[in-house]
Design goal:
The chain is of the alpha/beta class. Helices cover 26% and strands 24% of the residues. It has a seven-stranded mixed beta sheet. Helix 1 runs parallel beside helix 2 and helix 1 runs parallel beside helix 6. The longest helix is centred in the middle third of the chain and has 23 residues. The protein is elongated and about 70 Å long. It starts with a strand and ends in a 13-residue tail after the last helix.
């Protein structure tokens, strides 16, 4: 098949490299986001140029000239691997077999841009990814295939994406392409009754309320590690919290229950959070015990809670 690869960043690069290494299909064009001043070239663009492939970076896909160029590729299928620009039907339907898009959730659950964060934050036990036929609706359209995995109790956002979803999704490109070689690739209608949508998981969403149950606080920390990073306040300054573990204990929410080289234990409702790694304002990530010593933290010190 003649393929257009559309995407960006490391995932787009890996998708392109998988298709090229497999050698069963011809990549006729690569589309990625426009260059940003002061930023390095997109890894997908770099990989495409290294492979001698034509690269296109339109700011949108409504212009007649952009659509005419897409038609000139005579593509059979467009694979949309991590696409943030809106691509209208007029562009998606240009390839003979249309377009297929990747989304890192089990659609129709968790439509939206932060679909890996929210299942962890909400305490879900499973997640996965979907390849679907995109429509003009956000993450709507029939499903081609899905893959699911466990969210283990201590998994972070980084664990779920980089160790589970990312490698399995890139490997699944083999199946995606092979399914389009059949006369009727699968199409399963999304159940709108079960659809959920969440917007970006931003810094405001990652603020810790120590009065919440310890499981809720822990899920927030691991569901925002490494981005955007859960945070609290200490002496009026933001303090981001990364690696942590829950433990038993009672006390006043937000207070420091114990300090050791390996962790600071902070009280939540019904248990404690053992903070192992954090980032003070204006600094890099450090071990929590080292920071406690430098900051003069003592048992009984209090981190911010909502309303402080």
């Amino acid at each position: 098949m003649r393929l257009i690869i559309m995407g960006q960043q490391a995932f787009g690069q890996s998708a392109l490299e998988r298709i090229l290494a497999r050698g069963r299909d011809e990549v006729v064009a690569v589309y990625c986001a426009p260059d940003r001043e002061g930023r390095p070239d997109d890894p997908l663009k770099t990989a495409a140029i290294a492979a001698g492939l034509p690269v296109f970076q339109p700011a949108g896909f409504r212009d007649d000239a952009v659509l005419a160029t897409m038609r000139s590729h005579n593509a059979d299928l467009m694979i949309m691997a991590y696409v943030t620009l809106f691509v209208p039907e007029a562009a998606r339907d240009i390839p003979r077999l249309g377009s297929i898009c990747f989304h890192p959730s089990l659609l129709p659950l968790h439509r939206g841009p932060s679909s890996i964060n929210w299942p962890i934050i909400n305490g879900a036990a499973r997640t996965g990814f979907s390849w679907f036929y995109p429509t003009d609706g956000l993450d709507e359209g029939d499903i081609l295939l899905q893959w699911d995995c466990a969210i283990d109790p201590d998994d972070t956002l980084g664990d779920v994406y980089f160790k589970k979803i990312y490698p399995a999704a890139i490997e699944s490109l083999d199946e995606v392409c092979d399914l389009f070689r059949t006369d009727q690739p699968p199409r399963t209608v999304q159940d709108e009754a079960g659809a959920t949508y969440e917007s970006w998981c931003r810094a405001a969403d990652a603020k810790i309320d120590w009065r919440q149950p310890v499981a809720t606080v822990y899920n927030l920390i691991r569901g925002t590690n490494p981005q955007p990073g859960a945070w609290t306040t200490w002496q009026g300054e933001r303090l981001q919290i990364y690696d942590a573990r829950p433990s038993a204990g009672e006390g006043e929410p937000g207070t420091v229950a114990s300090i050791a080289a390996e962790a600071i234990h902070v009280q939540a409702t019904g248990g404690r959070i053992g903070v192992q790694r954090l980032r003070p304002a204006g600094s890099g990530k450090v071990r929590a015990g080292d920071w406690a010593h430098m900051a003069g933290l003592t048992v009984g010190s209090r981190f911010g809670v909502d309303g402080d």
